[in-house]
Amino acid sequence: MSKRIVFTGGSGKAGRHVVPYLLDKGHEVFNLDLVPLNHPGVNTLITDLTDSGQTFNALSMHFDFKGLETGKGPAPVDAVVHFAAVPRILIRPDNTTFQANVASTYNVIEAAVKLGIRKVIIASSETTYGVCFAEGDKDFHTFPLEEDYDVDPMDSYGLSKVVNEKTARAFAMRTGADIYALRIGNVIEPHEYDRFPAFVADPPSRKRNAWSYIDARDLGQIVHLCVEKDGLGYQVFNAVNDTITANEPTRDFLKRWAPNTPVHRELGEYEAPIANKKIREVLGFKEEHNWRNYVPKT
Ligand SMILES: NC(=O)c1ccc[n+]([C@@H]2O[C@H](COP(=O)([O-])OP(=O)(O)OC[C@H]3O[C@@H](n4cnc5c(N)ncnc54)[C@H](O)[C@@H]3O)[C@@H](O)[C@H]2O)c1
Predict the structure, then answer these.
(1) How far is the CA of 251 from the centre of ligand 1 (A)?
(2) Is pTM beyond 0.85 here?
(3) 248 CA distance to ligand 1 centroid (A)?
(4) What ligand 1 atom has the least distance to the C-alpha of 188?
(5) Which of 36, 101, 230, 295 is a plausible cystine mate for 196, CB 3.0–4.6 Å?
């Protein structure tokens, strides 16, 4: 069924693939961002989500001029997808990154649930697993990385995402709304598969991403499945593709390149070290864009 979705950060790297995926599934999308998304059928409202007043307003407005036709005011919103953020360290000062991400996520979730919107999906991150932006060579605690991991980032960006998961959990508990946090892996756009031969040739270079990734279009599928799946309350989902970014089977690869990290369960032959078992089993995710389809075999 077609849903009315407010999408934040739709003009960014991930959003510009996820928004078209949602439109293709028949949903209506309204983009809140600091810069426009040039995509037919999607209006961008220039909104600074670190400002609560702007956020409440934006979530209670018409999506576009067509909204005026009914004469009944803005129609209800079915879901909010919150992707807007400072997306890593070293773009803004650390304190600004932390404050912007924590404040905008608080504002979006609070406004959504107080306006009666019952589904919120937020972008969390692989960085919560603590290695991506760590000082020095830090080891993961255990493989595969699953949603019950004791997340422990030391950087301001990863920390902001851990706080955002707690904010999501608090508002889900307070209101009974469904709030799903996606621990998104390294986002790969269609034109970026030419980077994979270098990934495969230099395994240490991908340790910080746990040798995992998410195709931007498959991320669209995950968001769509989250929009469709009701009644789960607060959830964390890893949002990654199925397989490791290496040619060697995962168990042997990890023994060689992550020898200090124990493996706590059986692994699929090429299973990604960030496990996507939960989205496959709970949401019915089926990846469409395995990197091997786009990279000539060496
Ligand atoms: N790119 C990745 O590999 C990756 C990995 C894990 C998680 N994530 C998360 O996924 C989400 C999307 O990432 P991306 O790579 O598309 O980032 P991006 O920077 O390309 O896009 C983010 C968008 O948010 C907007 N934005 C920033 N601050 C805003 C504010 N205060 N108000 C309104 N809009 C604001 C920006 O203008 C931009 O268009 C982010 O939450 C990011 O932290 C990204």
Answers:
(1) 33
(2) yes
(3) 32
(4) 3
(5) 295
Nearest atom, ligand 1, residue 14 CA: 16
Name which residue sits closest to atom 11 of ligand 1, judged by CA.
83
| pLDDT tens digit sequence for 36-75 | 999 999 999 999 999 999 999 999 999 999 999 999 999 9
Q: What is the C-alpha separation between 203 and 253, in angstroms, rounded?
A: 9
What CATH number corresponds to the domain at position 71? Answer: 3.40.50.720
Q: Read off the tokens for 278.
A: 């939960």
pLDDT value at position 297?
A: 79
76, 64 in Cβ contact below 8 A?
A: no
For residues 242 and 244, give the distance between their C-alpha atoms in angstroms, rounded to a whole number: 7
Rounded Cα–Cα distance for residues 151 and 47 (Å):
31
14 alpha carbon to ligand 1 midpoint, in Å? 7
Mean pLDDT value across residues 205-209:
98
Total domains in the fold of the chain: 1
In the chain, % of residues over pLDDT 70: 100
Range of the domain at 128: 4-190+212-243+273-289
Q: Mapping DSSP to helix (H, G, I), strand (E, B) and coil, where does residue 115 land?
A: coil
Average pLDDT, rounded, for the chain: 98
The CA distance from 105 to 103, in Å, is 6
Tokens 């991400």 identify what position? 101
Best residue among 162, 184, 208, 218 to mutate for probing ligand 1's pocket (most ligand atoms within 8 Å of CB) is 184
